[in-house]
Amino acid sequence: MGFSLSPLAQQNGFRLEAFDTVGSTNAIALERAQSGDPGRLWIVSKKQESGRGRRGRAWATSHGNLAASLLVVGSFELKTAATLGFVAGLSLADALDAVCPQANIAVGVDGAGSRKEPMQIELKWPNDVLANGAKLSGILLESTQLPDGRFAIVIGIGVNVVAYPEDVPYPATSLAKLGATCDAETLFLALSDAWEENSRIWNEGRGLADIRKRWLKRAAGIGSEVAVRVDGAVLRGIFETIDEDCRFVIRDNDGERVKIAAGDVHFGAVASASAG
């Protein structure tokens, strides 16, 4: 089966460019924007060789994983557009619920046996999706200004479908490792459909309060110890919530509430060992 859009996405004017292998789906989407593409364009691939992660980190994927980028062109402010990362996280979580509802859970002290249980999908601020506590997906937003003064926003979504990186300082996983049989094409079909519902709720930022409520229901780590690396410094405290602008809110060791607009978040043992 090849990549395809859901009927609802097609009905609402979305288009699709699919590749077997690309350098970067985000880069292609940004090129399309500069060439005058009106947006509502998905760029997808099963292998990405020179993608980008947050803060300019290199990111490549194995063949069979999902790399998807959505080009959105609008007149809304960049501050508002930045919240599309939360829309993307919710959309992917909904898609995973639809097509990969269960995972293999190891049983016994030696992990020799397993049983099927519902997959626990959580959202980690700002733009990661976790499955059973390990990173399954990362989301990267990039923007470019257009000649007419508007901005083009590209929402890049990478999902570990068949393989996951092992040389990273945090737990990671893939759908295959979790025992899910969903492939990249099936997951993208569900994602393109789920995006329609969540972007309708977002409504160019007017429905952000509802998106925030939905995101918090799936949030990872609320009430737990957290360390946030911000511009080389590490802030520690308890993760309380995200505020109305989707900033990360912690209660620090002095009892003060601190709002963070950007940073790398670590929970639990990783917060204690890796973020200092």
From TrEMBL:
Coiled coil: none
Location of the BPL/LPL catalytic domain: 13-203
Record's keyword terms, sorted: ATP-binding, Biotin, Ligase, Nucleotide-binding
InterPro entries according to UniProt: aa-tRNA-synth_II/BPL/LPL, Biotin_CoA_COase_ligase, BPL_C, BPL_LPL_catalytic, Transcriptional_repressor_C
Keyword Zinc-finger recorded: no
The protein, known as: biotin--[biotin carboxyl-carrier protein] ligase
TM spans (from-to): none
CC terms in the record's Gene Ontology section: cytoplasm
Pfam families: BPL_C, BPL_LplA_LipB
Enzyme class, broadest EC rank: ligase
Catalysed transformations (reactions): biotin + L-lysyl-[protein] + ATP = N(6)-biotinyl-L-lysyl-[protein] + AMP + diphosphate + H(+)
A GO term for molecular function: ATP binding
Catalytic activity, EC: 6.3.4.15
